[in-house]
Design goal:
The protein has one domain: K homology (KH) domain (GMP Synthetase, Chain A, domain 3), CATH 3.30.300. The protein has 3 helices and 3 strands. The protein has helices spanning 2-12, 41-45, 50-66, and strands at 20-26, 29-36, 69-76. Strand 1 and strand 2 (29-36) form a beta hairpin. The radius of gyration is 12 Å and the shape is globular. It starts with a helix and ends with a strand. 14% of the residues are buried.
Length: 78
């Protein structure tokens, strides 16, 4: 899942070197935190959150296949 998210995020942003992903896996739950450059936040989230919701949906499907619940949080780099 991390590799998929990394691939999609880097394809969407202008500054792919600023993309980083943290994974917090506990039992049957995985929380992914996607950090992108502040200027690229709009590209990853999309109009009305459509891109972010599409990514979340795909990650949930991948998680269901592996038997885990997946959550995605998108934050700007510090």
């Amino acid at each position: 899942m991390k590799e998929f998210l990394d691939y999609v995020a880097r394809a969407l942003v202008d500054n792919p070197d600023a993309v980083s992903i943290e994974v917090d896996a506990r039992d049957d739950e995985v929380e992914l935190t996607l950090s992108v450059d502040e200027a690229d936040m709009g590209r990853v989230i999309g109009r009305d959150g459509r891109i972010a919701n599409a990514i979340r949906s795909l990650l949930r499907v991948m998680g269901t296949r592996e038997g885990v619940h997946v959550e995605l949080e998108i934050v700007p780099n510090d």
